[in-house]
# Entry
Amino acid sequence: MTCAELRERAVDPASALQGGHATVLQHLETCPDCRMAMRSFGAIDRLFRTPAPLESPADLDRRARALYATPRPGIGRLLKSPVAIAILVGTFLVVALQLTRRAPTSGGNPPASPAARRTALPGTPVPAIVAVESTPIVVNAVPLTRAEEREALRLYDFDFLMWRETLAGLGPFFPAAIGPAMPGAAAGGSPRAGPPLTPEDTVGRLQEWLRMPKAQRARVVAANQEFRERPEAERALLEERWSTVAALSEDERAGLRRLAARLTELDAKSVRRLESDVRTIGLAPRAERPGRWRALPFAQGLTGQELASAEKLLLSR
Amino acid sequence: MPRALSGVAPAPDTGDLLLVAAGDDAAIQRLLERWRQPLYSLFERMREPSGAVDAAAEVLAELFRTASRYDPDVLFPVWIWGIAARHVQKAPAVPLTGIAQQRLRDSASARTALLRSSVAALPGTERAAFLLTRVARLPMPMAARAMSLTENDLKKRLVRAMEGLTLSLQPILDAPDEASDSVPAPAGPAAESP
# Structure
């Protein structure tokens, strides 16, 4: 019996009526992870056993009846709303504008529209996708010059550049002895940290550059220059760390920023000790790592978000 | 109460929902009285009480609105818990709330907040799998039908949910149990037989 089979059996109360308990017991005798999991599952069941009483049933009844009585808007009602009409007209205008800016199709190689000619690099076909998920399309901005496009497309990822100092400060959480480089990190720049490679990323980058105020562009260019001047080994290290951090949520990254700030308050001896502790935790089974991490003296003064963010790093290997 | 052509009376919930479809207000009240607590208990495990009231009210309102589409061949608990499961799943996962260890030791309300946050932090399907089986106490086959999953898929998601909760509830899992007269959570009125 595998660990997965045992756990799937354990979560089904009806399994108590099945036979085959001997294999279950045999597995538990030899698998400390599953013994711990069974204890945890049982404790979780006990925690959630007792329901809280509904304090105001009349309030719930009233709410349910009110929601039931509220008619859902059909299309007819929507079309009577001035706001809905304004939104529909506005949407129609935007779509019409987009259609008139597209190149007309006329067999063979159709001539590119002025907008497409300005944003296409020499020898680069105009990308078919002109909107990338949440990246808004700037319709009325002054198009980028060729020099601006070349500048935008040679820069490292903007988020990565803004994070480079924090990544450098998180050293104790990336001790060298833990695991090899993250899979997918290419030599000479991981896909996440480096300049855009795909047509979709290229369009997204150019749109982002178009929207960016000039002062911020100058900061990004300076950050990129500073990063490129670092030793190659250091650059590779930071890009590797980014391939882990970039996958975290906004909240988790915010926790890591604060964690990095806390690390600057430690003396060298404490940093070395923390790095050693983190290295040891990284060698433990994954299920044990959160508990060991939270037991460290350094972890005692941290907020919940800082604890959770570091835990995510420790579990990412 | 309407009777099927076979002459067998439909079970109370099924019968009342059919009456709701016919505009019977008393049937609405009976369904409210039987199902408000079980639905509230489900949502109270992932939201504050006022949020749980709102969510339970939305499920009940949807139950009444869709009464005319109810197929009496479907078990009523599968129907209503299916609506509840969809509401549970559509809520986006919320980052886990950090609560200091000392506060967890000292405050029951802090521990309750951690329980809710842990459940709310689960991905939608895992969250629904956990709540339907561990809070609403549905048998696996019924919970699987309510969520339109196979039983194997449901078990896999439930295991992931339990493993996720093991991590997020670590600060309180090892604490001694609070003295409580543990009363099993009601799964609602006894499951009807068709």
Remarks:
- Chain A touches chain B through 50 residues (CB under 8 Å).
- Chain A has a mean pLDDT of 75.
